[in-house]
DNA sequence: CTGAAAGCGCTTACAG
DNA sequence: CTGAAAGCGCTTACAG
């Protein structure tokens, strides 16, 4: 924290700059030069601290010559307004919190988190907001973190992802009465704003396309049912199937993990009437399922059609290339940032919970790659493949 | 930032708690209840603010009964010490910075960032340190961010990744004189500590294994040569090749991208004497290369052997499963956190740049999956595959 | 052992 | 237009 007044910073005028930094102010610090403060700049520029502050906050007008003198002095001393002191005066941390409750082993393959963050953060920092991130491992820890960060004044609002069934965080946020944006469809009215991809049409398009090609046994490997988006994908798949008069009992849980997808795939293929097509709730599950299918000697793209969800960068490089539903998670992050900034700019000291939050829907897209494009044989795929032998 | 004294928080004693929160203190705020402060707690508990502070900082001893009274009062009011005020007094933000200069399109498939973060953050927050993240898109922005965050007192130190050739950040950090930990091998002595995986042995094992099987034309698709780890992988591959008396001219740049890997693979296969094995500098490039090879009708695992680097979760699910070099990036993050905390705990108000930083090396592991296991045919792979026709 | 008071580094009504 | 002074919410020597 101690700013070293190196000659670099002082433009090599260290010895002759006609300014002696006070070397102690009740300093109980071990050693080291003391921090440069607004007073040092004021003194060097020959103005009051108020003038320095004003010149850095732009609101009030000062003579240009004074502003220049102050800015020169600040540059010479390498001074910038201390963010902590500023935050204290303003009673705002100028920081948002992002708390993640996630199995860490899911993070390595999940395309959502890094892209969302890469979209979110630049949007916030463009407005000088910082982002504070926390990984928690239990709901208890998570709950405490939300409360603590607000009570301690660490954050001015939150970003939420991975909405869960009956998610207590929505009510918690309402109680805490802080701005928040939910990245995901809350499925109900909430005081928090929300932004999410609407992929219902994509899933319908996928199911209808398969149905049009003659598929009737279209299975679904769903993600973790505790997650709202996993349930939503399942529900839309089921509705699309029902709309075509198709049965929806070919379903298994894959929990968004590779191992789960492997088990789910085996279960589906072992069914009396195995599917001719499988819609996996994520590309990661689809990729794992592809290997399982290969092991079971069910050829993807020949005996069975599959599709995933997310459009991970590797999806086109699988063999056959994986059909999927693409969502731009970076865009989602960027929109979340914009909404959050809008939330805080409207100051609702109270009554935030009174109004309903904004809703912004983004479009997903169905991408029909080779893994999608097969027509079911006259018999089940396994019979087909054995009849070829 | 305004804490709502809801009945929830007050344990439903809101009306009869015998305590009237002062409703204004020169409050110029729009509306809303004012923030609960240490004075409110002191008043309710019938002690001084000093006592409240002490009871929350543990150092000095207070009578247990007083501590209890204070803590009860704090709980009743939902008060927690304001982090900003605390930081100001302590002249420390209790926060570390993590600034990323990265092409955002690389983030979606990169296993490093999310896992590293998932290891790093819990380590820091266990010690009540926060992590501030920033994505920048130019070196200029990056440099300013380091300087600004220190000058503004936003952070107490930094985490660095993606070390570049002749990386100016190492000197910048030394100049700024703040604690830092580098995740990666700086390749030279630096005042910052560093933690990284040593994979030289893994790469040698891979090359030697191929050489032992009779491969002599082992190519390398390297990552972005601006990055130190890409260069290191190349150098170690080249040294291992040279040690076996093998030529090192079969090399191409893939830039860590799918498209780059595609181009690099085409270039290598088009060579007069194409390789019988390819070491890709990342799994993402290897996966992309696999598709290119398939398009070129060079069969991985039959005509050519390949291996990647990173061990992404999908690696075992490619076909054939991808041999690779595994590094535990979560462990790397956890170790980086530990080192950083150790750095700040030793207070070096000056002279940080005098001593050399600590070095911690972690082990990588070579994982020989099916894509690795072929022996080269008597002729080149393309001749082999055409002679089979 | 406990409290009054100074001070962390700013910002901003307020007074000149 | 400009500055002196109060105050943001804490912590901590210092004095009782």
CATH topology of the largest domain in chain A: Rossmann fold
Report the largest inter-chain contact: A-B, 81 and 80 residues
| Overall residue-averaged pLDDT value of chain A | 85
Instruction: Give the CA-based shape of chain A.
Output: elongated
Oligomer: homodimer
Count of extended strands of chain A: 12
Please give the radius of gyration of chain A in angstroms. Answer: 29 Å
CATH class of the largest domain in chain A: Alpha Beta
CATH architecture of the largest domain in chain A: 3-Layer(aba) Sandwich
Largest sheet properties of chain A: 6 strands, parallel
Low-pLDDT parts of chain A are 1-32, 379-389
Could you say how many structural domains of chain A there are in total? 3
Main sheet: strand order of chain A:
2-1-3-4-5-11
> What percentage of residues of chain A falls in helices of 4 or more residues?
40-55%
Gap between N and C termini of chain A, in Å?
A: 74 Å
Helix/strand-derived class of chain A?
Answer: alpha/beta
Protein name (chains A, B): LacI family transcriptional regulator
GO molecular function (chains A, B): DNA-binding transcription factor activity; transcription cis-regulatory region binding
Organism (chains A, B): Salana multivorans
InterPro entries (chains A, B): HTH_LacI, LacI/GalR-like_sensor, Lambda_DNA-bd_dom_sf, Peripla_BP_I
């Amino acid at each position: 924290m101690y700013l070293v007044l190196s000659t670099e910073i002082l433009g090599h005028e260290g010895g002759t700059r006609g300014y002696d930094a006070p070397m102690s102010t009740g300093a109980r610090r071990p050693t080291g030069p003391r921090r440069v403060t607004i007073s040092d700049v004021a003194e060097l520029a020959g103005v009051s601290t108020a003038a320095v502050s004003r010149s850095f906050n732009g609101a009030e007008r000062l003579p240009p010559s004074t502003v220049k003198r102050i800015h020169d002095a600040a540059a010479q001393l390498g001074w910038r307004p201390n963010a902590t002191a500023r935050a204290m005066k303003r009673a705002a941390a100028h920081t948002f919190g992002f708390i993640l409750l996630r199995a860490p082993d899911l993070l390595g393959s999940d395309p959502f988190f890094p892209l969302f963050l890469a979209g979110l953060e630049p949007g916030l920092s463009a407005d000088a907001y910082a982002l504070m991130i926390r990984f928690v491992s239990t709901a208890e820890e998570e709950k405490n973190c939300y409360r603590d960060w607000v009570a301690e004044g660490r954050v001015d609002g939150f970003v939420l992802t991975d909405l869960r069934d009956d998610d207590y965080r929505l009510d918690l946020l309402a109680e805490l009465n802080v701005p928040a944006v939910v990245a995901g469809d809350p499925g109900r009215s909430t005081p928090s704003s929300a932004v999410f991809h609407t992929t219902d049409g994509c899933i319908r398009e996928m199911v209808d396309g398969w149905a049009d090609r003659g598929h009737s046994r279209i299975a679904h490997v769903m993600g973790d049912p505790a997650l709202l988006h996993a349930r939503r994908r399942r529900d839309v798949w089921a509705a699309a199937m029902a709309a075509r008069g198709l049965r929806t009992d070919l379903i298994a849980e894959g929990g968004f993990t590779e191992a789960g997808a492997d088990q789910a795939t085996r279960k589906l293929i072992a069914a009396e009437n195995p599917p001719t097509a499988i819609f996996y709730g994520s590309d990661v599950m689809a990729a794992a399922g592809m290997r399982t299918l290969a092991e079971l000697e069910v050829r993807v793209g020949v005996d069975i059609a599959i599709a995933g969800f997310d459009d991970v960068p590797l999806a086109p490089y699988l063999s056959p290339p994986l059909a999927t539903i693409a969502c731009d998670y970076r865009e989602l992050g960027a929109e979340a940032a914009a909404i959050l900034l809008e939330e805080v700019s409207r100051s609702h000291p109270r009554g935030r919970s009174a109004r309903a939050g904004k809703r912004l829907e983004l479009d997903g897209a169905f991408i029909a790659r080779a893994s999608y494009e097969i027509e079911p044989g006259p018999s089940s795929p396994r019979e087909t493949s054995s009849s070829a032998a």
